[in-house]
Amino acid sequence: MKRKFFLLLPALLVLICLLAPVLAPWDPNKADPTIKFAKMSASHWLGTDYLGRDIFSRVLWGGRRTMGYAALVTAASAVFGTCLGMLSGFTGGVFDSVVMKGSDILRSFPGIVLVLIVVSVRGVGIGSVCLAMLLVRWIWYARMARNLTRAEMGRTAILASRLSGSSWLKILRRHIFISILPEMLPVLSLDFGGALLAISGYSFLGLGILPPDAEWGMMINDGRNYMEHPGMMLWPGLCVVFIVISVNLLGDRLRDKLEVRRS
Amino acid sequence: MREAQGNTLLEVKNISKTYQSRKRQPVYALREVGFSLQEGRCLGVVGESGCGKSTLCRVIAGIEKPDVGEILYQGEPADHRKIRSSLQMVFQNSMDAVNIHLKAGKILAEPLENFTSLNRNQREQEVERLLELVGLSAEDKAKYPRQFSGGQLQRICIARALAAEPKLLLLDEPLSSLDVSVQAQLLNLLSDLKKELHLTCLLVSHDLEAVYYLADKLLVMYGGAAVEEIEDIRDICALTHPYTRRLLEAGELETESGEAGQKDEGILTEEKREYLAASFREGCVYAGHCPRAERKCFLERPGLVEREAGHRIACHFG
Protein backbone atom coordinates (compact mmCIF):
# COMPACT_ATOMS: atom_id res chain seq x y z
CA MET A 1 0.00 0.00 0.00
CA LYS A 2 2.72 2.42 1.00
CA ARG A 3 4.64 1.74 -2.19
CA LYS A 4 1.56 2.18 -4.35
CA PHE A 5 1.05 5.53 -2.67
CA PHE A 6 4.49 6.55 -3.78
CA LEU A 7 3.52 6.00 -7.38
CA LEU A 8 0.07 7.45 -7.09
CA LEU A 9 1.18 10.84 -5.82
CA PRO A 10 3.55 11.71 -8.69
CA ALA A 11 0.98 10.38 -11.14
CA LEU A 12 -1.47 12.83 -9.62
CA LEU A 13 1.02 15.69 -9.96
CA VAL A 14 1.63 14.78 -13.60
CA LEU A 15 -2.08 14.69 -14.22
CA ILE A 16 -2.83 18.09 -12.73
CA CYS A 17 0.11 19.59 -14.61
CA LEU A 18 -1.26 18.15 -17.83
CA LEU A 19 -4.61 19.68 -17.03
CA ALA A 20 -3.04 23.06 -16.29
CA PRO A 21 -5.12 24.92 -18.91
CA VAL A 22 -8.25 23.77 -17.09
CA LEU A 23 -7.08 23.71 -13.49
CA ALA A 24 -4.82 26.75 -13.24
CA PRO A 25 -6.85 29.47 -11.53
CA TRP A 26 -4.89 32.34 -13.09
CA ASP A 27 -3.12 33.20 -16.31
CA PRO A 28 0.47 32.17 -15.46
CA ASN A 29 2.00 35.14 -17.29
CA LYS A 30 -0.38 37.82 -16.03
CA ALA A 31 1.67 40.23 -13.93
CA ASP A 32 0.07 42.43 -11.29
CA PRO A 33 2.71 44.43 -9.41
CA THR A 34 0.17 45.57 -6.84
CA ILE A 35 0.06 42.10 -5.31
CA LYS A 36 3.71 41.04 -5.69
CA PHE A 37 5.12 38.67 -3.08
CA ALA A 38 1.62 37.90 -1.82
CA LYS A 39 1.37 35.25 0.87
CA MET A 40 -0.59 32.04 0.45
CA SER A 41 -4.27 32.86 0.32
CA ALA A 42 -7.57 31.55 -0.97
CA SER A 43 -7.20 33.34 -4.30
CA HIS A 44 -3.46 32.71 -4.75
CA TRP A 45 -2.94 29.27 -3.20
CA LEU A 46 0.85 29.38 -3.19
CA GLY A 47 1.19 33.15 -3.21
CA THR A 48 2.61 35.32 -6.00
CA ASP A 49 6.11 36.04 -7.29
CA TYR A 50 8.09 39.28 -7.78
CA LEU A 51 5.81 40.37 -10.61
CA GLY A 52 2.65 39.37 -8.82
CA ARG A 53 2.12 36.26 -10.95
CA ASP A 54 0.25 33.36 -9.36
CA ILE A 55 2.83 30.74 -8.32
CA PHE A 56 0.36 27.84 -8.30
CA SER A 57 -0.63 28.50 -11.90
CA ARG A 58 3.00 28.92 -12.89
CA VAL A 59 3.97 25.65 -11.21
CA LEU A 60 1.26 23.82 -13.14
CA TRP A 61 2.14 25.40 -16.47
CA GLY A 62 5.83 25.05 -15.77
CA GLY A 63 5.44 21.39 -14.93
CA ARG A 64 3.66 20.85 -18.18
CA ARG A 65 6.62 22.28 -20.08
CA THR A 66 9.41 20.75 -17.99
CA MET A 67 7.94 17.27 -17.93
CA GLY A 68 6.64 17.51 -21.47
CA TYR A 69 10.00 18.37 -22.97
CA ALA A 70 11.76 15.84 -20.75
CA ALA A 71 9.34 13.16 -21.92
CA LEU A 72 9.78 14.23 -25.52
CA VAL A 73 13.57 14.10 -25.37
CA THR A 74 13.52 10.79 -23.50
CA ALA A 75 11.04 9.19 -25.87
CA ALA A 76 12.77 10.40 -29.01
CA SER A 77 16.22 9.34 -27.85
CA ALA A 78 14.91 6.01 -26.58
CA VAL A 79 13.17 5.17 -29.83
CA PHE A 80 16.06 6.28 -32.01
CA GLY A 81 18.74 4.74 -29.81
CA THR A 82 16.95 1.45 -29.33
CA CYS A 83 16.23 1.02 -33.03
CA LEU A 84 19.77 1.87 -34.02
CA GLY A 85 21.24 -0.31 -31.27
CA MET A 86 19.09 -3.29 -32.18
CA LEU A 87 19.96 -2.92 -35.84
CA SER A 88 23.62 -2.55 -35.01
CA GLY A 89 23.64 -5.61 -32.81
CA PHE A 90 21.61 -7.60 -35.29
CA THR A 91 23.69 -6.86 -38.36
CA GLY A 92 27.07 -6.81 -36.65
CA GLY A 93 30.15 -6.35 -38.81
CA VAL A 94 31.09 -3.00 -40.29
CA PHE A 95 27.80 -1.26 -39.57
CA ASP A 96 28.05 -2.30 -35.94
CA SER A 97 31.55 -0.96 -35.49
CA VAL A 98 30.75 2.29 -37.30
CA VAL A 99 27.74 2.93 -35.06
CA MET A 100 29.62 2.04 -31.91
CA LYS A 101 32.66 4.14 -32.80
CA GLY A 102 30.38 7.03 -33.72
CA SER A 103 28.63 6.83 -30.40
CA ASP A 104 31.98 6.68 -28.62
CA ILE A 105 33.05 9.90 -30.30
CA LEU A 106 29.78 11.66 -29.50
CA ARG A 107 29.91 10.42 -25.94
CA SER A 108 33.29 12.01 -25.41
CA PHE A 109 31.68 15.48 -25.74
CA PRO A 110 30.50 16.79 -22.37
CA GLY A 111 26.78 17.47 -22.62
CA ILE A 112 27.06 21.09 -21.53
CA VAL A 113 29.62 21.88 -24.23
CA LEU A 114 27.35 20.40 -26.85
CA VAL A 115 24.46 22.50 -25.56
CA LEU A 116 26.59 25.64 -25.72
CA ILE A 117 27.64 24.84 -29.29
CA VAL A 118 24.09 24.21 -30.45
CA VAL A 119 22.83 27.30 -28.63
CA SER A 120 25.51 29.46 -30.21
CA VAL A 121 24.55 28.18 -33.65
CA ARG A 122 20.77 28.11 -33.33
CA GLY A 123 20.25 30.73 -30.65
CA VAL A 124 18.84 30.36 -27.15
CA GLY A 125 15.64 28.39 -26.83
CA ILE A 126 14.19 25.10 -25.71
CA GLY A 127 14.52 23.73 -29.25
CA SER A 128 18.31 24.08 -29.15
CA VAL A 129 18.52 22.50 -25.73
CA CYS A 130 16.37 19.54 -26.78
CA LEU A 131 18.40 19.07 -29.94
CA ALA A 132 21.67 19.10 -28.03
CA MET A 133 20.28 16.63 -25.51
CA LEU A 134 19.03 14.34 -28.26
CA LEU A 135 22.50 14.27 -29.78
CA VAL A 136 23.97 12.54 -26.74
CA ARG A 137 21.06 10.86 -25.00
CA TRP A 138 20.35 8.19 -27.62
CA ILE A 139 23.82 6.72 -27.08
CA TRP A 140 22.96 4.97 -23.83
CA TYR A 141 19.95 3.35 -25.39
CA ALA A 142 21.90 2.35 -28.47
CA ARG A 143 24.71 0.76 -26.47
CA MET A 144 22.38 -1.06 -24.17
CA ALA A 145 20.05 -2.25 -26.91
CA ARG A 146 23.04 -3.35 -28.96
CA ASN A 147 24.59 -5.42 -26.18
CA LEU A 148 21.29 -6.96 -25.17
CA THR A 149 20.57 -7.77 -28.79
CA ARG A 150 23.90 -9.47 -29.19
CA ALA A 151 23.26 -11.58 -26.13
CA GLU A 152 19.82 -12.44 -27.43
CA MET A 153 21.18 -13.37 -30.84
CA GLY A 154 23.15 -16.20 -29.28
CA ARG A 155 19.97 -17.94 -28.21
CA THR A 156 18.60 -20.88 -30.11
CA ALA A 157 15.20 -19.19 -30.15
CA ILE A 158 16.44 -16.86 -32.88
CA LEU A 159 17.56 -19.80 -34.99
CA ALA A 160 14.25 -21.52 -34.37
CA SER A 161 12.45 -18.41 -35.48
CA ARG A 162 14.51 -18.29 -38.66
CA LEU A 163 13.62 -21.91 -39.31
CA SER A 164 10.00 -20.98 -38.73
CA GLY A 165 10.33 -18.73 -41.75
CA SER A 166 10.31 -15.37 -40.01
CA SER A 167 11.90 -12.42 -41.76
CA TRP A 168 14.67 -10.55 -39.97
CA LEU A 169 12.33 -7.63 -39.33
CA LYS A 170 9.88 -9.96 -37.67
CA ILE A 171 12.63 -11.55 -35.60
CA LEU A 172 13.75 -8.12 -34.45
CA ARG A 173 10.24 -7.07 -33.58
CA ARG A 174 8.77 -10.25 -32.23
CA HIS A 175 11.73 -11.77 -30.44
CA ILE A 176 14.53 -9.35 -29.78
CA PHE A 177 12.48 -6.28 -28.97
CA ILE A 178 10.20 -8.14 -26.60
CA SER A 179 13.15 -9.77 -24.88
CA ILE A 180 15.15 -6.62 -24.32
CA LEU A 181 12.21 -4.40 -23.38
CA PRO A 182 12.10 -5.48 -19.70
CA GLU A 183 15.71 -4.45 -19.32
CA MET A 184 15.26 -1.18 -21.16
CA LEU A 185 12.23 0.06 -19.22
CA PRO A 186 13.99 0.81 -15.91
CA VAL A 187 16.64 2.73 -17.83
CA LEU A 188 13.93 4.69 -19.57
CA SER A 189 12.43 5.65 -16.25
CA LEU A 190 15.77 6.68 -14.72
CA ASP A 191 16.70 8.57 -17.84
CA PHE A 192 13.49 10.55 -17.75
CA GLY A 193 14.54 11.85 -14.33
CA GLY A 194 17.91 12.81 -15.75
CA ALA A 195 16.35 14.57 -18.72
CA LEU A 196 14.00 16.49 -16.45
CA LEU A 197 16.89 17.68 -14.31
CA ALA A 198 18.83 18.66 -17.41
CA ILE A 199 15.93 20.62 -18.93
CA SER A 200 15.26 22.56 -15.76
CA GLY A 201 19.00 22.96 -15.26
CA TYR A 202 19.51 24.56 -18.66
CA SER A 203 16.46 26.74 -18.16
CA PHE A 204 17.87 27.73 -14.78
CA LEU A 205 20.95 28.89 -16.67
CA GLY A 206 18.72 30.80 -19.06
CA LEU A 207 19.44 28.61 -22.07
CA GLY A 208 16.13 26.79 -22.34
CA ILE A 209 12.62 28.12 -21.98
CA LEU A 210 12.49 31.87 -22.47
CA PRO A 211 10.60 34.23 -20.18
CA PRO A 212 7.83 35.04 -19.60
CA ASP A 213 6.79 31.38 -20.05
CA ALA A 214 6.93 29.39 -16.83
CA GLU A 215 9.32 26.50 -16.30
CA TRP A 216 10.41 24.95 -13.02
CA GLY A 217 14.14 25.55 -13.40
CA MET A 218 13.58 29.08 -14.55
CA MET A 219 11.21 29.76 -11.66
CA ILE A 220 13.90 28.62 -9.25
CA ASN A 221 16.33 30.99 -10.92
CA ASP A 222 13.83 33.84 -10.57
CA GLY A 223 13.43 33.05 -6.91
CA ARG A 224 17.18 33.08 -6.34
CA ASN A 225 17.16 36.90 -6.32
CA TYR A 226 14.47 37.07 -3.66
CA MET A 227 15.67 34.72 -0.96
CA GLU A 228 13.51 36.49 1.59
CA HIS A 229 10.46 35.12 -0.22
CA PRO A 230 11.28 31.39 -0.25
CA GLY A 231 7.93 30.41 -1.77
CA MET A 232 9.18 31.36 -5.23
CA MET A 233 11.93 28.74 -5.11
CA LEU A 234 10.35 26.27 -2.76
CA TRP A 235 7.39 25.06 -4.80
CA PRO A 236 9.01 24.44 -8.19
CA GLY A 237 12.05 23.04 -6.41
CA LEU A 238 9.93 20.63 -4.41
CA CYS A 239 8.18 19.53 -7.59
CA VAL A 240 11.47 18.79 -9.36
CA VAL A 241 12.84 16.84 -6.41
CA PHE A 242 9.59 14.98 -5.96
CA ILE A 243 9.26 13.92 -9.59
CA VAL A 244 12.90 12.93 -9.95
CA ILE A 245 12.84 10.85 -6.77
CA SER A 246 9.60 9.23 -7.89
CA VAL A 247 10.86 8.19 -11.31
CA ASN A 248 14.06 6.87 -9.78
CA LEU A 249 12.06 4.80 -7.33
CA LEU A 250 9.84 3.66 -10.17
CA GLY A 251 12.90 2.61 -12.13
CA ASP A 252 14.27 0.66 -9.19
CA ARG A 253 10.95 -1.01 -8.63
CA LEU A 254 10.63 -1.96 -12.27
CA ARG A 255 14.09 -3.43 -12.20
CA ASP A 256 13.37 -5.45 -9.04
CA LYS A 257 10.13 -6.71 -10.44
CA LEU A 258 11.57 -7.71 -13.80
CA GLU A 259 14.58 -9.32 -12.17
CA VAL A 260 12.29 -11.51 -10.11
CA ARG A 261 10.47 -12.49 -13.27
CA ARG A 262 13.72 -13.34 -14.94
CA SER A 263 15.07 -15.71 -12.31
CA MET B 1 14.62 -56.14 -47.39
CA ARG B 2 17.84 -54.39 -46.55
CA GLU B 3 17.67 -52.37 -49.75
CA ALA B 4 16.32 -48.89 -49.34
CA GLN B 5 12.66 -48.56 -50.03
CA GLY B 6 11.02 -45.33 -51.17
CA ASN B 7 12.51 -42.33 -52.86
CA THR B 8 15.63 -40.71 -51.61
CA LEU B 9 14.58 -37.53 -49.82
CA LEU B 10 17.90 -36.27 -48.65
CA GLU B 11 21.33 -36.91 -49.91
CA VAL B 12 24.37 -35.49 -48.22
CA LYS B 13 27.48 -35.62 -50.36
CA ASN B 14 30.89 -35.36 -48.77
CA ILE B 15 30.32 -32.26 -46.73
CA SER B 16 33.17 -30.79 -44.76
CA LYS B 17 33.17 -27.90 -42.36
CA THR B 18 36.16 -26.48 -40.55
CA TYR B 19 36.07 -23.81 -37.87
CA GLN B 20 38.92 -21.69 -36.65
CA SER B 21 39.48 -22.03 -32.95
CA ARG B 22 40.66 -19.09 -30.86
CA LYS B 23 44.22 -20.28 -31.13
CA ARG B 24 43.87 -20.28 -34.91
CA GLN B 25 43.90 -24.05 -34.93
CA PRO B 26 41.51 -25.61 -37.39
CA VAL B 27 38.68 -27.53 -35.76
CA TYR B 28 37.37 -30.21 -38.05
CA ALA B 29 33.66 -30.25 -37.32
CA LEU B 30 32.76 -32.33 -40.34
CA ARG B 31 35.05 -34.30 -42.63
CA GLU B 32 33.60 -35.61 -45.84
CA VAL B 33 30.42 -36.87 -44.28
CA GLY B 34 27.95 -38.37 -46.68
CA PHE B 35 24.80 -40.43 -46.49
CA SER B 36 21.40 -40.70 -48.07
CA LEU B 37 18.04 -40.84 -46.40
CA GLN B 38 14.93 -42.36 -47.91
CA GLU B 39 11.46 -41.02 -47.41
CA GLY B 40 9.75 -42.22 -44.25
CA ARG B 41 12.91 -43.55 -42.67
CA CYS B 42 14.82 -42.34 -39.69
CA LEU B 43 18.56 -42.00 -39.56
CA GLY B 44 20.17 -42.07 -36.16
CA VAL B 45 23.45 -40.24 -35.78
CA VAL B 46 25.42 -41.14 -32.68
CA GLY B 47 28.72 -39.95 -31.36
CA GLU B 48 30.13 -38.21 -28.34
CA SER B 49 29.74 -34.49 -27.86
CA GLY B 50 31.93 -32.48 -30.16
CA CYS B 51 31.98 -35.14 -32.86
CA GLY B 52 30.21 -32.86 -35.31
CA LYS B 53 26.74 -34.31 -35.20
CA SER B 54 25.10 -31.02 -34.25
CA THR B 55 27.03 -29.26 -36.97
CA LEU B 56 25.74 -31.85 -39.39
CA CYS B 57 22.20 -30.99 -38.32
CA ARG B 58 22.81 -27.28 -38.71
CA VAL B 59 24.35 -27.67 -42.12
CA ILE B 60 21.43 -29.74 -43.33
CA ALA B 61 18.98 -27.24 -41.86
CA GLY B 62 20.73 -24.49 -43.79
CA ILE B 63 21.75 -22.54 -40.70
CA GLU B 64 25.36 -23.00 -41.65
CA LYS B 65 27.02 -23.51 -44.97
CA PRO B 66 29.40 -26.39 -45.56
CA ASP B 67 32.89 -25.52 -46.80
CA VAL B 68 32.82 -28.33 -49.32
CA GLY B 69 30.17 -30.74 -50.44
CA GLU B 70 26.58 -30.67 -51.43
CA ILE B 71 23.18 -31.36 -49.97
CA LEU B 72 20.59 -32.76 -52.34
CA TYR B 73 16.95 -32.52 -51.40
CA GLN B 74 14.66 -34.66 -53.54
CA GLY B 75 17.49 -35.03 -55.99
CA GLU B 76 18.14 -31.32 -56.41
CA PRO B 77 20.70 -29.10 -54.69
CA ALA B 78 18.96 -27.78 -51.61
CA ASP B 79 17.89 -24.15 -51.75
CA HIS B 80 16.97 -23.59 -48.14
CA ARG B 81 14.85 -20.56 -48.83
CA LYS B 82 12.56 -22.67 -50.99
CA ILE B 83 12.42 -25.78 -48.85
CA ARG B 84 12.36 -23.95 -45.52
CA SER B 85 8.98 -25.30 -44.46
CA SER B 86 9.65 -28.89 -45.43
CA LEU B 87 12.77 -29.07 -43.34
CA GLN B 88 12.34 -28.35 -39.66
CA MET B 89 14.46 -28.80 -36.61
CA VAL B 90 13.98 -29.54 -32.91
CA PHE B 91 16.74 -28.22 -30.69
CA GLN B 92 18.48 -29.62 -27.67
CA ASN B 93 17.63 -27.13 -24.95
CA SER B 94 13.95 -26.34 -25.22
CA MET B 95 14.10 -23.45 -22.74
CA ASP B 96 16.65 -21.71 -24.92
CA ALA B 97 14.81 -22.51 -28.12
CA VAL B 98 11.66 -20.56 -27.32
CA ASN B 99 11.08 -16.93 -26.54
CA ILE B 100 10.23 -16.94 -22.84
CA HIS B 101 8.21 -13.76 -23.21
CA LEU B 102 5.71 -15.29 -25.59
CA LYS B 103 2.80 -17.55 -24.74
CA ALA B 104 2.79 -21.07 -26.13
CA GLY B 105 -0.01 -20.18 -28.54
CA LYS B 106 2.02 -17.34 -29.95
CA ILE B 107 5.11 -19.53 -30.29
CA LEU B 108 3.17 -22.09 -32.29
CA ALA B 109 1.47 -19.44 -34.38
CA GLU B 110 4.75 -18.11 -35.73
CA PRO B 111 5.41 -20.78 -38.37
CA LEU B 112 1.70 -20.77 -39.24
CA GLU B 113 1.83 -17.05 -39.93
CA ASN B 114 4.84 -17.48 -42.16
CA PHE B 115 4.04 -20.66 -44.03
CA THR B 116 0.27 -20.79 -44.27
CA SER B 117 -2.44 -18.40 -45.34
CA LEU B 118 -4.71 -19.19 -42.41
CA ASN B 119 -6.57 -16.33 -40.79
CA ARG B 120 -6.46 -15.61 -37.09
CA ASN B 121 -9.27 -17.97 -36.11
CA GLN B 122 -7.98 -20.81 -38.23
CA ARG B 123 -4.53 -20.33 -36.76
CA GLU B 124 -6.02 -20.52 -33.30
CA GLN B 125 -7.67 -23.82 -34.16
CA GLU B 126 -4.52 -25.14 -35.75
CA VAL B 127 -2.54 -24.23 -32.63
CA GLU B 128 -4.99 -26.19 -30.51
CA ARG B 129 -4.79 -29.14 -32.87
CA LEU B 130 -1.01 -29.08 -32.72
CA LEU B 131 -0.99 -28.94 -28.94
CA GLU B 132 -3.24 -31.96 -28.79
CA LEU B 133 -1.16 -33.71 -31.40
CA VAL B 134 1.85 -33.60 -29.11
CA GLY B 135 -0.13 -34.66 -26.06
CA LEU B 136 -0.82 -31.30 -24.45
CA SER B 137 -4.19 -29.70 -23.92
CA ALA B 138 -5.64 -26.83 -25.92
CA GLU B 139 -5.73 -24.63 -22.81
CA ASP B 140 -1.95 -24.74 -22.62
CA LYS B 141 -1.73 -22.15 -25.35
CA ALA B 142 -2.27 -19.40 -22.79
CA LYS B 143 0.71 -20.47 -20.70
CA TYR B 144 4.18 -19.03 -20.76
CA PRO B 145 7.19 -21.32 -21.36
CA ARG B 146 8.18 -20.97 -17.71
CA GLN B 147 4.97 -22.69 -16.68
CA PHE B 148 5.85 -25.87 -18.54
CA SER B 149 8.17 -28.65 -17.51
CA GLY B 150 11.15 -29.46 -19.70
CA GLY B 151 9.36 -32.34 -21.36
CA GLN B 152 6.24 -30.31 -22.03
CA LEU B 153 8.28 -27.50 -23.49
CA GLN B 154 10.10 -29.91 -25.76
CA ARG B 155 6.67 -31.11 -26.91
CA ILE B 156 5.88 -27.52 -27.81
CA CYS B 157 9.10 -27.28 -29.78
CA ILE B 158 8.14 -30.45 -31.62
CA ALA B 159 4.70 -28.99 -32.30
CA ARG B 160 6.30 -25.83 -33.63
CA ALA B 161 8.46 -27.84 -35.99
CA LEU B 162 5.41 -29.83 -37.12
CA ALA B 163 3.36 -26.67 -37.69
CA ALA B 164 5.26 -26.11 -40.91
CA GLU B 165 4.22 -29.59 -42.08
CA PRO B 166 7.77 -30.67 -42.75
CA LYS B 167 8.84 -33.72 -44.68
CA LEU B 168 12.14 -33.95 -42.91
CA LEU B 169 12.46 -33.45 -39.18
CA LEU B 170 15.91 -32.84 -37.76
CA LEU B 171 16.10 -33.78 -34.10
CA ASP B 172 19.23 -32.38 -32.52
CA GLU B 173 19.58 -34.20 -29.18
CA PRO B 174 15.93 -33.59 -28.38
CA LEU B 175 16.04 -35.70 -25.23
CA SER B 176 19.34 -34.89 -23.64
CA SER B 177 18.15 -32.25 -21.19
CA LEU B 178 15.30 -34.40 -19.87
CA ASP B 179 15.09 -37.10 -17.25
CA VAL B 180 14.73 -40.72 -18.18
CA SER B 181 10.98 -41.27 -17.77
CA VAL B 182 10.23 -38.12 -19.75
CA GLN B 183 12.68 -39.25 -22.40
CA ALA B 184 10.71 -42.46 -22.81
CA GLN B 185 7.43 -40.58 -23.17
CA LEU B 186 8.89 -38.29 -25.78
CA LEU B 187 10.39 -41.20 -27.68
CA ASN B 188 6.96 -42.78 -27.83
CA LEU B 189 5.49 -39.54 -29.03
CA LEU B 190 8.12 -39.11 -31.71
CA SER B 191 7.69 -42.67 -32.85
CA ASP B 192 3.89 -42.22 -33.10
CA LEU B 193 4.22 -38.93 -34.94
CA LYS B 194 6.69 -40.40 -37.34
CA LYS B 195 4.25 -43.14 -38.32
CA GLU B 196 1.21 -40.90 -38.32
CA LEU B 197 2.68 -38.10 -40.41
CA HIS B 198 5.07 -40.20 -42.50
CA LEU B 199 7.97 -38.12 -41.33
CA THR B 200 11.51 -38.64 -42.39
CA CYS B 201 13.73 -38.04 -39.39
CA LEU B 202 17.30 -37.44 -38.58
CA LEU B 203 17.89 -38.12 -34.91
CA VAL B 204 21.12 -36.89 -33.46
CA SER B 205 21.90 -38.27 -30.06
CA HIS B 206 24.56 -39.62 -27.80
CA ASP B 207 22.06 -42.06 -26.37
CA LEU B 208 22.36 -45.29 -28.31
CA GLU B 209 19.21 -46.74 -26.78
CA ALA B 210 17.06 -43.83 -27.91
CA VAL B 211 18.50 -44.08 -31.38
CA TYR B 212 17.89 -47.81 -31.46
CA TYR B 213 14.28 -47.25 -30.51
CA LEU B 214 13.50 -44.61 -33.10
CA ALA B 215 15.93 -45.00 -35.96
CA ASP B 216 15.89 -47.39 -38.93
CA LYS B 217 19.48 -46.83 -39.89
CA LEU B 218 22.52 -45.73 -38.03
CA LEU B 219 25.50 -43.52 -38.62
CA VAL B 220 28.31 -43.45 -36.09
CA MET B 221 30.46 -40.36 -36.02
CA TYR B 222 33.78 -39.65 -34.40
CA GLY B 223 35.94 -36.55 -34.70
CA GLY B 224 33.76 -35.09 -37.43
CA ALA B 225 33.92 -38.14 -39.66
CA ALA B 226 31.46 -40.93 -40.25
CA VAL B 227 33.17 -44.10 -39.03
CA GLU B 228 30.43 -46.64 -39.54
CA GLU B 229 27.02 -46.87 -41.12
CA ILE B 230 24.35 -49.56 -41.28
CA GLU B 231 21.17 -49.57 -43.32
CA ASP B 232 19.20 -51.65 -40.86
CA ILE B 233 19.48 -50.84 -37.20
CA ARG B 234 18.50 -54.38 -36.26
CA ASP B 235 22.00 -55.38 -37.31
CA ILE B 236 23.42 -53.19 -34.58
CA CYS B 237 25.35 -56.11 -33.10
CA ALA B 238 27.15 -56.65 -36.38
CA LEU B 239 28.91 -53.32 -36.06
CA THR B 240 32.64 -53.80 -35.94
CA HIS B 241 34.40 -50.44 -35.82
CA PRO B 242 36.49 -50.27 -32.64
CA TYR B 243 34.81 -47.04 -31.60
CA THR B 244 31.33 -48.45 -32.16
CA ARG B 245 32.30 -51.56 -30.23
CA ARG B 246 33.33 -49.40 -27.34
CA LEU B 247 30.00 -47.60 -27.48
CA LEU B 248 28.05 -50.81 -27.54
CA GLU B 249 30.01 -52.30 -24.69
CA ALA B 250 29.73 -49.19 -22.59
CA GLY B 251 25.99 -49.19 -23.16
CA GLU B 252 25.96 -45.46 -23.44
CA LEU B 253 28.31 -42.81 -24.65
CA GLU B 254 30.47 -40.71 -22.45
CA THR B 255 28.90 -37.33 -22.67
CA GLU B 256 31.77 -35.70 -20.88
CA SER B 257 34.28 -36.93 -23.39
CA GLY B 258 35.44 -33.38 -24.05
CA GLU B 259 36.75 -33.12 -20.51
CA ALA B 260 38.12 -36.62 -20.52
CA GLY B 261 39.94 -35.87 -23.74
CA GLN B 262 41.52 -32.84 -22.22
CA LYS B 263 42.70 -34.84 -19.25
CA ASP B 264 44.22 -37.36 -21.61
CA GLU B 265 46.06 -34.65 -23.43
CA GLY B 266 47.35 -33.33 -20.16
CA ILE B 267 49.59 -36.30 -19.62
CA LEU B 268 50.75 -36.48 -23.21
CA THR B 269 54.22 -35.37 -24.09
CA GLU B 270 54.63 -32.61 -26.61
CA GLU B 271 55.96 -35.08 -29.15
CA LYS B 272 53.06 -37.43 -28.80
CA ARG B 273 50.57 -34.61 -29.01
CA GLU B 274 52.00 -33.50 -32.31
CA TYR B 275 51.86 -37.06 -33.51
CA LEU B 276 48.21 -37.21 -32.52
CA ALA B 277 47.46 -33.91 -34.19
CA ALA B 278 49.05 -35.21 -37.36
CA SER B 279 46.93 -38.32 -37.20
CA PHE B 280 43.89 -36.11 -36.75
CA ARG B 281 44.81 -34.32 -39.95
CA GLU B 282 45.86 -37.25 -42.04
CA GLY B 283 45.22 -40.52 -40.29
CA CYS B 284 42.21 -42.29 -38.85
CA VAL B 285 40.20 -39.95 -36.61
CA TYR B 286 40.00 -42.60 -33.92
CA ALA B 287 43.61 -43.73 -34.06
CA GLY B 288 44.56 -41.87 -30.90
CA HIS B 289 42.14 -43.83 -28.76
CA CYS B 290 41.90 -47.05 -30.69
CA PRO B 291 43.20 -50.19 -28.97
CA ARG B 292 43.98 -51.74 -32.35
CA ALA B 293 45.72 -48.74 -33.85
CA GLU B 294 48.87 -49.41 -35.78
CA ARG B 295 51.30 -47.22 -37.60
CA LYS B 296 49.18 -47.23 -40.72
CA CYS B 297 46.20 -45.86 -38.83
CA PHE B 298 48.08 -42.70 -37.91
CA LEU B 299 49.32 -42.05 -41.40
CA GLU B 300 46.46 -42.96 -43.65
CA ARG B 301 42.78 -42.20 -43.31
CA PRO B 302 40.51 -45.17 -44.04
CA GLY B 303 37.58 -44.33 -46.29
CA LEU B 304 34.01 -45.37 -45.62
CA VAL B 305 33.88 -48.64 -47.54
CA GLU B 306 31.05 -51.07 -48.03
CA ARG B 307 32.06 -54.32 -46.27
CA GLU B 308 28.81 -56.12 -46.80
CA ALA B 309 25.40 -55.09 -48.09
CA GLY B 310 24.09 -52.22 -46.00
CA HIS B 311 27.14 -51.95 -43.80
CA ARG B 312 29.86 -49.42 -44.41
CA ILE B 313 32.84 -48.89 -42.21
CA ALA B 314 35.89 -46.67 -42.09
CA CYS B 315 38.59 -48.85 -40.58
CA HIS B 316 41.73 -50.44 -41.93
CA PHE B 317 40.87 -53.68 -40.16
CA GLY B 318 37.23 -53.81 -41.21
Main features:
heterodimer, A: 263 residues, mainly alpha, MetI-like fold, 10 helices, 0% strand, B: 318 residues, alpha/beta, Rossmann fold, eight-stranded mixed beta sheet, four-stranded antiparallel beta sheet, 11 helices, 36% helix, elongated
Verbal overview:
The complex is a heterodimer of chains A (263) and B (318). Chain A has 263 residues and is mostly helical. Chain A has helices at 2-18, 20-23, 55-91, 93-107, 111-122, 126-153, 156-163, 168-204, 216-224, 231-262. Chain A is 76% helix and 0% strand. Chain A starts with a helix and ends with a helix. The mean pLDDT of chain A is 85. By secondary structure, chain B is α/β, with parallel strands linked by helices. Chain B has one domain (8-313): Rossmann fold, CATH 3.40.50.300. In chain B, 36% of the residues lie in helices and 23% in strands. Chain B contains eleven helices and twelve strands. Chain B has helices at 53-61, 94-97, 104-115, 120-133, 150-163, 180-197, 208-214, 242-250, 257-266, 270-282, 295-299; strands at 8-20, 26-38, 42-46, 68-73, 76-77, 87-90, 168-172, 200-205, 217-222, 225-230, 305-308, 311-313. In chain B, the strands form two sheets. Chain B has an eight-stranded mixed sheet with strand order 6-7-8-3-9-10-12-11, with helices on both faces. In chain B, helix 3 (104-115) crosses helix 4 (120-133), helix 3 runs parallel beside helix 5 and helix 4 crosses helix 5 (150-163). The longest helix of chain B has 18 residues, at 180-197. Chain B is elongated and about 65 Å long. Chain B starts with 7 loop residues before the first strand and ends in a 5-residue tail after the last strand. The chains are: A mainly alpha (263), B alpha/beta (318). Chain A binds chain B through residues 155-157, 159-166, 170, 174-175, 178-179, 182, and chain B through 61, 63, 84-85, 88-89, 91-93, 96-102, 110-111, 114-115, 157, 160-161, 163-164.
